[in-house]
């Protein structure tokens, strides 16, 4: 059983996440494991209880809640070996104590390996290994290692000195409880077992002309392609006319026949040359036009995705798996309605018009009779299109679900392998593909029947043409050559109808895909991060929250902030603390304009941030969150992400890394700052990722520095060094610190204690301690 430092949850219900620990466990075992992990009471308080959806990667829960659910998932396995990699790092003091007792009980009779920064969590271990630079330096019990006064003793002394104050405290996490979601069934947005079709979006109906309008920059290519289509479409009807003339030639005698045959031979060569040139022109121009259209729509969709507010991504249908699927799959499907497919339709249309013209010119009676059969062919194609339209949207949704599962599994492959749930996820993936597969089989059978029938009708048309043509020749209304002209002209017309029916099939798929893609392109963003509009005042750091009320858009009936008022002076360091669910992290989200308040105002330098340019505001803010996110690029690129690459950039990166206490470990890497960090920073430890994230914030020289548990992933020694660096970095800046460990914020100019969405106490560490109120009770909870 493994519980890692950064817990990974899947986008299903809480119960399903715990059951991933061991397939087939009952609800009683799930609740027992949750109770041992001290998370049952919290889950039970939610409107939907264990059926509550956690969101993609557990985004609807706080770090502490995710950690406890991950712990329950490990305990439900009843493992012989228990691996705990900072398993209690995100828990508050009370929860940590209870969970630690539960873990000690769970460890009985099991081999347990604990990776720990906080020495208080490993004092009772049978054996403690003190490591340094990849080697075991000391080994023994807590008392034995303390007596050695070596590496372990230095760590313990450093930790004690760092935490020591007039009131002793220990490291703790008072994690924010994510407020429960509105009452709803878990099946509504279930990612793996959808029982209802998810909303299809508010996209407008997409016509062929809409796509052509977006292809206007390639109008020259389209016109050339139209020319090529017109010529290539007329080739076969002209061939029918030529063939009739050749047939007439063979009725001649002697030299006259030879000369006519030579002439028409040359005409066929000319026709072949025109066919080659026109088809080449059609394919090249129409393919270039549609590829540029797909590229344009993809970029526009991605551009608009990045403009959306964070609340938009909170919805399950806007998860990364769905959005990636739309960009990767839906955009290429648009080719079925434009480009070469459109060229083939235009060519087929020209063929039909020219063929019908020739047929009626040389034998309107025969042409009219044979045309009565055409509706039978086109009717079958139309009926097939209707059937496909009924299944296309549903199949598309299920394919999106399958892509979601695959994306989440690949992103969290270590967790999947650690849980041994590969076969389970393969089954989930297969289940989502089974319905489209069954529909595809039905469509294949139906398409085979319809196609075979249409071919039989075409041959019946041929039979009718010969029989009725013979009659018309017999009565003298047509010549044999005219019958052949009409016959071949209508044969090519029938082939063109087949080509058109294939286009209609692709067009239907393209229309569904385009509608979903244009849902992304057309959507207006309430908080447009790429808009050039808005005020751009000089920001010195004065921040005011004035009677701010807020609830998350996905949970409108659960208030988070209830008239909060707080002033942060320029250059001041304000720490925000409080019990679970008080809204600490929400302040950071609102100041960054990830969300807008329901009422009240947030001002910077006296300007309402809703009136400010979003990019200008965010450029003045440096943010370090509790769970750092790095990109799969080099360390240098991660620190300098988004900054202009000038002559001073490298020096600025090194300076920021030094300030964040990560320059030394980066320099020891074989490739130094050019080392790639892996997907999500997987090649680095939690502490290393956090320090790089701090460096990324500092290199921008922000006016306002926001730290949401910025040192939570660091060991004691690194935390002390980084805390000293941050103390230097915040000089001259407005700094807002969201903290669980009170040891990290005692030197703050002002400490704001939040409770139930309001500031209840405000003052310095000493002032609040002397009040013996909420802050004092938090301190008491952290006493040794």
TrEMBL record:
The keyword Nucleotide-binding applies. It holds the Pfam family ABC_membrane. InterPro entries: AAA+_ATPase, ABC1_TM_dom, ABC1_TM_sf, ABC_transporter-like_ATP-bd, ABC_transporter-like_CS, P-loop_NTPase, Type_1_exporter. One of its GO terms (cellular component) is mitochondrial inner membrane. The chain crosses the membrane at residues 220-243, 263-290, 368-386, 444-463, 483-504. The lineage of its organism: Eukaryota, Metazoa, Ecdysozoa, Arthropoda, Hexapoda. This is Uncharacterized protein. GO terms for molecular function: ABC-type oligopeptide transporter activity; ATP binding; ATP hydrolysis activity.
């Amino acid at each position: 059983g493994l519980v890692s430092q950064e817990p990974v949850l899947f986008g299903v219900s809480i119960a399903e996440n715990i059951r991933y620990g061991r397939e087939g466990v009952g609800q009683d075992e799930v609740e027992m494991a949750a109770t041992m992990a001290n998370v049952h009471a919290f889950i039970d308080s939610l409107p939907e209880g264990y059926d509550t959806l956690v969101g993609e990667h557990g985004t609807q829960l706080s770090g502490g809640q995710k950690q406890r659910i991950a712990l329950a998932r490990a305990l439900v396995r009843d493992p012989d070996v228990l691996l705990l990699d900072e398993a209690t790092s995100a828990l508050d003091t009370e929860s940590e104590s209870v969970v630690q007792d539960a873990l000690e009980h769970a460890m009985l009779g099991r081999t347990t390996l604990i990776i720990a920064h906080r020495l208080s969590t490993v004092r009772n271990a049978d054996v403690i290994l003190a490591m340094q630079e990849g080697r075991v330096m000391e080994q023994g019990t807590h008392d034995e290692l303390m007596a050695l006064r070596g590496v372990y003793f230095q760590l313990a002394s450093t930790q004690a000195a760092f935490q020591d104050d007039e009131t002793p405290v220990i490291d703790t996490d008072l994690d924010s409880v994510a407020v429960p979601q509105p009452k709803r069934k878990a099946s509504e947005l279930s990612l793996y077992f959808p029982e209802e079709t998810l909303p299809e979006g508010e996209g407008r109906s997409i016509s062929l002309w809409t796509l052509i309008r977006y292809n206007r920059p390639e109008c020259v290519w389209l016109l050339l392609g139209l020319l090529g289509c017109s010529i290539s479409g007329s080739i076969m009807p002209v061939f029918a006319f030529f063939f009739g003339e050749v047939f007439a030639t063979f009725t001649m005698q002697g030299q006259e026949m030879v000369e006519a045959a030579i002439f028409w031979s040359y005409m066929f060569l000319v026709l072949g040359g025109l066919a080659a040139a026109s088809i080449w022109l059609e394919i090249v121009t129409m393919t270039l036009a549609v590829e540029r259209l797909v590229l344009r729509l993809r970029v526009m969709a991605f551009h608009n995705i990045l403009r959306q507010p964070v609340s938009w991504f909170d919805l399950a249908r806007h998860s990364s798996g769905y959005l990636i699927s739309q960009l990767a799959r839906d955009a290429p499907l648009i080719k079925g309605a434009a480009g070469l497919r459109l060229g083939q339709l235009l060519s087929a249309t020209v063929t039909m018009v020219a063929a019908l013209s020739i047929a009626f010119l040389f034998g309107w009676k025969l042409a009219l009779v044979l045309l009565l059969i055409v509706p039978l062919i086109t009717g079958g194609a139309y009926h097939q299109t209707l059937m496909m339209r009924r299944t296309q949207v549903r199949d598309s949704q299920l394919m999106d679900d399958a892509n979601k599962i695959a994306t989440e599994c690949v992103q969290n492959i270590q967790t999947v392998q650690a849980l041994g749930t590969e076969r389970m996820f393969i089954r989930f993936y297969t289940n989502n593909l089974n319905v489209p597969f069954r529909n595809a089989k039905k469509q294949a059978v139906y398409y085979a029947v319809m196609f075979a029938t249409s071919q039989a009708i075409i041959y019946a048309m041929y039979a009718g043409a010969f029989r009725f043509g013979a009659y018309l020749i017999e009565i003298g209304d047509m010549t044999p050559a005219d019958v052949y002209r009409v016959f071949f002209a209508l044969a090519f017309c029938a082939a063109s109808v087949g080509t058109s029916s294939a286009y209609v099939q692709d067009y239907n798929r393209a229309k569904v895909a385009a509608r979903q893609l244009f849902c992304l392109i057309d959507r207006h963003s309430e908080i447009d991060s790429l808009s050039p509009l808005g005020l751009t005042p000089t920001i010195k750091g004065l921040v005011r929250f004035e009677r701010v009320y807020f609830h998350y858009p996905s949970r409108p009936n659960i208030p988070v902030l209830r008239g909060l008022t707080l002033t942060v002076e320029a250059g001041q360091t304000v720490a925000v603390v409080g019990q679970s669910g008080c809204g600490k992290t929400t302040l950071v989200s609102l100041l960054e304009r990830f969300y807008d308040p329901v009422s009240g105002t947030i001002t910077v330098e006296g300007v309402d941030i809703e009136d400010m340019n979003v990019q200008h505001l965010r450029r003045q803010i440096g943010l370090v969150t509790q769970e750092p996110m790095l990109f799969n690029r080099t360390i240098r690129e991660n620190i300098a992400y988004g900054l202009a690459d000038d002559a001073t950039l490298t020096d600025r990166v090194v300076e920021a890394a030094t300030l964040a206490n990560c320059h030394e470990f980066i320099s020891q890497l074989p490739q130094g700052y050019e080392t790639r960090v892996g997907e999500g920073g997987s090649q680095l430890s939690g502490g290393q990722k956090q320090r790089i994230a701090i460096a990324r914030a500092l290199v921008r020289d922000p006016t306002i520095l926001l730290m949401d548990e910025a040192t939570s992933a660091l060991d004691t020694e690194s935390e002390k060094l980084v805390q000293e660096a941050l103390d230097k970095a915040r000089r001259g800046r407005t700094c807002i610190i969201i903290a669980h460990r009170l040891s990290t914020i005692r030197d703050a100019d002002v400490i704001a204690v939040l409770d139930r969405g309001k500031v209840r106490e405000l003052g310095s560490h000493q002032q609040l301690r002397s009040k013996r109120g909420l802050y004092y009770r938090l301190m008491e909870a952290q006493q040794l």
